[in-house]
Amino acid sequence: MAVIGELIKKAIDVYGFVAAETDPAKAQQEVLKNLLTKARLTAFGKKHTFSDLLNSDDVIAAFQQEVPIHDYDKLYTDWWHYLLEGHQNVTWPGGQRYFALSSGTTSTSKSIPVTDDMIDSIRKSGIQQVMSLKNFDLPSDFFEKQIMMLGSSVNLIEKDDHQEGEISGISAANIPAWFRGYYKPGIEIASMTDWDQKVRQIAKEAPTWDIGSLSGIPSWVEMMLKEVISYNRIQTIHDIWPNLQVYTTGGVAFEPYRKSLEALMARPLTYIDTYLTSEGYLATQKRPDTSSMALIVDNGIFFEFVPFLEENMDEEGRVKQDATVHSLEQAEENIDYVLLISTVSGTWRYMIGDTVMITDKKRAEIKITGRTKHFLNVVGEQLSVHQMNKAMQAMQKRFDLEIKEFVVSAIRKNGEYINKWYIGSNKLVDNQEMAASLDNELRETNKNYNVARTKSLKGVEAEVVPVDHFYRWSEEHKKLGGQTKIPRVMKEEDFLDFEKYISELAG
């Protein structure tokens, strides 16, 4: 039987889940009521009178009035540290088997609780994603092929009464037994913690697999594909995996990697974007005629939207307690919002640090526009990561090069602020020309940036360096592979350390 038949059968038999169109606003109301009901007897639920909230005429409004907004530090300090000490029924019923170690772009290590209910939620969201493949006009034999999921090690760290690892590793360690025959590289290889060893073993075994789809962060998928091609002495990845048709991406913007990835292929793939974080599986692209992703509105996650405006944010980039906050029903299209989530892992009105834009409210579709702390606004530039990515796409076309990574900071030079960029590419160009072109592009597309350039922002510098320099920095300062992402914006102190490291590589 084809994989899709197995998945649908399992989804219906095991979960009682049938893919159907739901009204997003109604689904979200039910999700919040279910969250409050299940957590009402926890310490958090008692503190914030969840039982009383459930009796309110407007449960969402009552919830927003009673429960404060949290970032990681606040939730950890007030509540989650008890979980790491072995306490139960703190923010969600029961104890705690897993913690997801944050592997994003911040330097601070985070331990995010992953409950059994969240593992079930991630599985169901994965099934929604697979079911939506029927919308992408794929041949029936695609659903009989294997799926390469390039994530973090499933060899989790044992800590007292729980295990720790990245969310992709925790998810892979809990894949259903019926799915393991389709999952590659398999548990044994996925357990390897050394990135180079893992990729070399994938390259060795690649000829024995019939891969139909790939999943993983673009930069690490690209490195893996290059190793498979080099080790097996082939021209393109389709020489060894002729049935490869789908790439499920996520974690970072895909467009900067499209050109270099397609250079490794005999033909383009179907690209599907996903939004899987340490806190949950939030959204997935469900149709081919858009690059937006549909929020998963009926599966244990309640979403709130804070207009990304100065009056709603404090100096540290956190949402203020008195900020304007909208439910999905109240939110509007084409506005930058800071995303808050409440989930079956016991996160409550939790700021995950992403900004999103609703592109189709009826379908609850969004695009990720950036990170709240990766918003450059030291001297009024007001540059979002979304705007930076668009500028980099323009630079790719203008200079005919591939830009894989970049980082920017506002730094002081001769007592005045400039924006300094490091750009990782496949070839070098004149740095002064790049800086001037990038500056002009941003001045044309961002009026706030243009104003800043006439006042406090006195200059722009850019250095184009081999992209491998970024990956070597990542390997030494963070780690290579898995879900690791490279920051787009750095504070001045961190940026100067990064600059020193890059200079030493070049020197």
Automatic annotation (TrEMBL):
<keyword id="KW-0175">Coiled coil</keyword>
<feature type="coiled-coil region">
    <location>
        <begin position="428"/>
        <end position="455"/>
    </location>
</feature>
<feature type="domain" description="GH3 C-terminal">
    <location>
        <begin position="387"/>
        <end position="493"/>
    </location>
</feature>
<dbReference type="Pfam" id="PF03321">
    <property type="entry name" value="GH3"/>
</dbReference>
<dbReference type="Pfam" id="PF23571">
    <property type="entry name" value="GH3_M"/>
</dbReference>
<dbReference type="InterPro" id="IPR004993">
    <property type="entry name" value="GH3"/>
</dbReference>
<dbReference type="GO" id="GO:0016881">
    <property type="term" value="F:acid-amino acid ligase activity"/>
</dbReference>
<feature type="domain" description="GH3 middle">
    <location>
        <begin position="295"/>
        <end position="361"/>
    </location>
</feature>
<protein>
    <submittedName>
        <fullName>GH3 auxin-responsive promoter</fullName>
    </submittedName>
</protein>
<dbReference type="GO" id="GO:0005737">
    <property type="term" value="C:cytoplasm"/>
</dbReference>
<dbReference type="InterPro" id="IPR055377">
    <property type="entry name" value="GH3_M"/>
</dbReference>
<dbReference type="InterPro" id="IPR055378">
    <property type="entry name" value="GH3_C"/>
</dbReference>
<dbReference type="Pfam" id="PF23572">
    <property type="entry name" value="GH3_C"/>
</dbReference>
